[in-house]
Design a protein that fits this description.
CATH topology of the largest domain in chain B: Rossmann fold
Number of strands of chain A: 4
Strand order of the largest sheet of chain A: 1-4
Largest interface: A-B, 21 and 26 residues
Structural class of chain B: alpha/beta
Largest sheet of chain A: 2 strands, antiparallel
Strand content of chain B: 15-25%
Low-confidence stretches of chain A: none
Radius of gyration of chain A: 18 Å
Distance between the termini of chain A: 39 Å
CATH architecture of one domain in chain A: 2-Layer Sandwich
Low-confidence stretches of chain B: none
Shape of chain B: globular
Mean pLDDT of chain B: 96
Strand order of the largest sheet of chain B: 3-2-4-5-7-6-12
Radius of gyration of chain B: 21 Å
Helix content of chain A: 10-25%
CATH class of the largest domain in chain B: Alpha Beta
Number of strands of chain B: 15
Number of helices of chain A: 2
Oligomer: heterodimer
CATH architecture of the largest domain in chain B: 3-Layer(aba) Sandwich
């Protein structure tokens, strides 16, 4: 069965929405409906990692310098990281 | 040539399903569909067919199990009534969204409350928008025929949708009728082996019932609606082929003495045969009354209904369900919607009748037709009426 690109056009929807390829869920970007995104101010960040620990999506990770950032493909903008960050290094900013 | 035999209709439905080379059945018995479940269970237990009969703990499980089995490519069947159908509700639109050709016989029964085990159409009307093809049988023979036809329709590659076939609880299920039961060889000729579009198999993984985010859900719903609308073409083809093979006609809207009739009754289900007697009686008295019988509820036969009412002044719709606080009954609402843009449409009167097993006699249909005849050219004060309700 030929694999179609996920529907540009309703006519391209496979009957029953069947996906003929395993592992395609990996390509789902679950953060597409986010309204606000977290932005880190590294000047205030103490690299404690509490944002990383509390993120319910597990989408926050540290970079090579030990600062944190969210993977915006999966971040839903819930703001839990902002709430938990005691140095107040994270702010929620409206999506453009 | 098929033999003519006397058989209870619920039992006959089980026999008809058994002729369809089923792979898997899951039915949870509930009045008045119990005999379908019991008899199919007997047929499987006695080794008459090589199918799995899954005993489940509820209707929700029955339909869920059938969805799973159908996903593996099995030909599946289930049946239910009333509260059982209500309990299946969560799985109903999933079965159609997954485009699984499940066939379900529904013995129509009123839904609680108050608790009532008798016939009306309130159970299936709750499932009106579930995305299933929905067919109404008028008598036992139609129920047998439509059960077998349902597999052909459901499994057609241009359809791939579940089909429910409706029979009035008790009025049909518990009545012994003379029936022509097709031979196995005839059914085999009519209904080839099922070739699924896709199957769940570990050697070739596929995802069924995938997630759809807001950016795709709309397209999926449009595709589902189009599939259901387009299924009418296949329904008509299958019915024509059945007529050619078995000599029995099925139409989305069949008419009875409707030529030049000023007043038309519109019925669904078993009340059609009672209303026919009323039409005969009124025609004998020289009154211009005929009737239409709707057999295909979804996809709704808009064109056929428009054609069938041409020339009529009044269309009196018999609704065996209520849309509370809405336009009256679901059939009346559909008929009005179908005819709204027609320049010479008849006045559509909507009568809510026969709820929870209240008998509708020949005299009742005569009274409605006579009342409807007087309503010519002016609409009802209310858009619908509970016919025969005490205190009206």
């Amino acid at each position: 069965m030929a694999e179609k690109k996920w529907p540009e056009n309703w006519r391209d929807v496979n009957p029953g929405c069947i996906v003929f390829r395993p592992g395609s869920a990996r390509e789902y970007h679950t953060g597409t409906w986010r309204a606000l995104k977290p932005v880190w101010d590294n000047a205030k960040c103490i690299k404690c990692g509490i944002c990383y620990i509390f993120c319910p999506e597990g989408c926050i990770s540290a970079d090579d310098d030990g600062y944190f950032a969210a993977n915006l493909d999966y971040c839903k903008g819930c703001g839990i990281c902002v709430h938990e960050c005691w140095p107040r290094a994270i702010k929620l900013v409206a999506e453009g | 040539m098929s033999k003519r035999i006397g058989m209870e209709v619920a039992v006959a439905v089980a026999e008809a399903a058994a002729l369809c080379r089923l792979d898997m059945v899951a039915v949870y018995p509930i009045t008045p569909n119990t005999h379908v479940a019991e008899h199919l269970s007997d047929i499987v237990a006695n080794g008459r067919i090589d199918a799995e009969f899954l005993t489940v703990e509820s209707e929700h499980s029955a339909l869920s199990a059938v969805v799973g089995a159908s996903g593996t490519g099995a030909r599946t069947f289930t049946a239910t009534s009333s509260q059982g159908l209500m309990y299946m509700a969560e799985v109903m639109p999933i079965a159609s969204a997954m485009r699984l050709p499940i066939v379900m016989a529904i013995a129509n029964r009123a839904i609680a409350g108050p608790l009532n085990i008798w016939n009306d159409h309130s159970d299936i009307m709750y499932q009106r928008d579930s995305g299933w093809i929905s067919i109404f049988a008028e008598n036992g023979q139609e129920m047998v025929d439509m059960t077998i036809q349902a597999f052909r329709i459901a499994e057609h590659r241009d359809v791939m949708l579940p089909v429910n076939v409706n029979m009035d609880g008790f009025q049909l299920t518990h009545v012994v009728e003379p029936l022509e039961m097709p031979e196995q060889s005839e059914v085999d000729k009519f209904l080839p082996a099922y070739i699924p579009y896709a199957t769940l198999h570990p050697d070739k993984p596929v995802t069924m019932g995938a997630f759809a985010a807001p950016d795709t859900y709309n397209e999926v719903m449009k595709a589902k609606d189009t599939a259901l609308v387009n299924s009418k073409k296949v329904v008509l083809e299958v019915w024509q082929e059945w007529e050619k093979m078995f000599g029995r006609k099925c139409e989305p809207v069949s008419s009875y003495r409707a030529e030049d009739a000023k007043v038309l009754l519109l019925t669904m289900g078993s009340m059609g045969e009672t209303a026919e007697v009323a039409v005969d009686e009124l025609r004998k008295q020289g009154k211009s009354v005929g009737m239409l019988k709707l057999k295909l509820w979804r996809p709704f036969p808009f064109v056929e209904l428009k054609m069938a009412v041409k020339g009529a002044k009044v269309l009196a719709v018999m609704d065996r369900a209520v849309s509370f606080g809405g336009p009256g009954g679901p059939l009346g609402a559909e008929a009005r919607s179908a005819l709204y843009n027609e320049p010479d449409r008849p006045v559509v009167l909507d009568y809510i009748i026969g709820l929870g097993g209240r008998d509708m006699t020949v005299e009742d249909f005569i009274a409605i037709a006579e009342k409807a005849a007087k309503a010519e050219k002016k609409d009802m004060k209310e858009s619908y009426e509970f016919y025969g309700v005490r205190g009206a």
